[in-house]
Write a structure and sequence with these properties.
The structure is a single chain. The protein contains 12 helices and 14 strands. The chain is α+β, with helices and mostly antiparallel strands and about 350 residues long. The chain folds into 2 domains: about 200 residues, Ribosomal Protein S5, domain 2 (2-Layer Sandwich), CATH 3.30.230.10; about 140 residues, GHMP kinase, C-terminal domain (Alpha-Beta Plaits), CATH 3.30.70. Strands 2, 3, 4, 5, 7, 8, 9 and 14 form an 8-stranded mixed sheet that branches. A 4-stranded antiparallel sheet has the order 11-12-10-13. Strand 4 and strand 5 form a beta hairpin.
Length: about 350
């Protein structure tokens, strides 16, 4: 184990990474994209300036401390830290890097378990901070692959790549998944340039429903259905619909993007009717009544919803959503723009 306490006393390290909203999620899992490879599946994500920040501070030799808002702090011996605790992913990273004598302090600008990929962005930020501290440099692709490998190994279930990609690269991207096991693990295409971000932000609305989500529950259900062959044809349609959404968004054809977005959600509801809770259904119905599209973030089941529409329609939807969100403590509209940079280390 390498003791970083002395190094961090003179030079604490801080890193941040982006959260995201998405369309076409779950297609970033191998169990889906290899069988569907003839359709060239992709996932669209929009990185948000709701950042997850990680600070590396000095701590007692032989130990690692991790603290994060919304969780009890944990301190463990560096060589025997558990990976199955609420903050176990962070200890899995420090063990992978073989470090001790550090305090990992995590501050998230997004609500806990909001389905915006916060745990993955914390992982990416921590890997970036440790890479800078140990090697003096970061590599986005290596950071993404490392974060995904650690998260999947600790979770014990198949995990996607889109959260780590949005966290590391930022911006608005379509990520295309390999059709062959020898291909690179992802290929990205910028859907909108930085010059278009201000415009896109006027067409977006993001709401937190006030309750946390558990993505593994719904993702696990989708995975088991797909493996058994149930409703697999609907996932093929999700691929087609997601690609239609990406094409429409790239040319700022808001009406076509809204139509594709709503169709993708209709299919998801057919596969798993409980992907929206009661408040989620109310927000969705309100969006449709205001000529907007609305979609759950991540795997749904709580967390956040996001809407897309013409600027006037989004402006009309906002007060309607605010009225609905008043019904639950903690539910609110999130003030979020687009993060162009992704992972940053100072």
């Amino acid at each position: 184990m390498r003791d970083l306490g002395k190094v961090l006393e003179s030079h604490p390290v801080k890193a941040s990474a982006a959260c995201r909203i998405d369309c076409g999620g779950t297609l970033d899992i191998k169990a889906f994209y290899y069988p569907l490879r003839h359709l060239s599946p992709c996932t669209l994500n929009i990185a948000l300036n709701l950042k997850t920040q990680v600070r590396l501070l000095p701590y007692e030799s032989g130990l690692v401390k991790v603290s994060s808002q919304g969780f009890d702090s944990e301190v463990h011996a560096a060589d025997s830290a558990p990976f199955d605790s609420p903050l176990g992913l962070m200890f899995a990273v420090t063990t992978y890097f073989g470090v001790e004598g550090i305090h990992v302090d995590i501050v998230s600008e997004s609500p806990p378990k909001s389905a915006l990929g916060g745990s993955s962005s914390a992982l990416v930020a921590l890997i970036g901070a440790l890479s800078m501290c140990l090697d003096g440099k970061i590599n986005q692709e290596k950071t993404v692959i490392t974060a995904h490998a650690i998260e999947e190994s600790v979770a014990g279930i198949p995990c996607g790549l889109q959260d780590q990609l949005a966290a590391a690269y930022g911006g608005v991207h379509a990520w295309y998944w390999p059709s062959d096991t020898t291909d690179t693990p992802f290929r990205g295409r910028e859907v909108l340039s930085k010059a278009d971000y201000d415009t896109l932000e006027k067409h977006l609305l993001i709401a937190y429903c006030g309750i946390p989500h558990e993505s593994k529950d719904i993702n696990g259900e989708w995975l088991q259905q797909f493996i058994k062959g149930n409703k697999r044809h609907l996932w093929a349609e999700i691929v087609t619909t997601t690609k239609t959404f990406v094409k429409a968004l790239s040319v700022k054809d808001w009406a076509s993007a809204v139509h594709a977005m709503n169709r993708e959600v209709e299919i998801r509801k057919e596969i798993t009717p409980h992907v929206f809770d009661e408040m989620g259904h109310a927000l969705l119905d309100s969006a449709l009544a205001n000529n907007c599209g609305a979609r759950f973030a991540g795997a749904g089941g709580g967390g956040c919803l996001w809407a897309l529409g013409m600027e006037d329609d989004i402006n009309g939807l906002k007060p309607a959503w605010e009225d609905i969100l008043k019904e639950r403590e903690g539910a609110t509209i999130l003030k979020a723009g687009i993060n162009p940079r992704g992972l940053e280390v100072v």
